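Weekly puzzle thread! Below is a chain. First person to post its structure in token form gets bragging rights.
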Amino acid sequence: MIDSIKHDKYSILSMQFEELDFIKTPRVSAVIKEKLESLGYGNIILDINNLDYIDSTGMSSLINISRRIKDKNHEMVVVCSSTKILQLFDIAKMANFFKIFQSMDEAENYLRTRK
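Winning reply:
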């Protein structure tokens, strides 16, 4: 469902499913919370490149996850290359809550240089 890889300055959480909707969001949120606790709530790259669909409950969940991480003085960034989802994020002003990168390299470079 969600793979995780821990690096020195950040961890990567990769969503391995295509839809994040009101049915899947509660389970996904619980799994992410467990992963964050095991990773120590450090800086996170959330890779959502496999997503084809996200609804408002899914977006709300991403905002809440980002806030939990910020409360621990760390940052979550999102990697997404789907034009459809990026357009939706733009309409919903998701960039107000977390940085969005179109490639993993961009996100990793950003967090490597973050203090």
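Puzzle host: Confirmed. Bonus trivia for everyone else. The mean pLDDT is 95.
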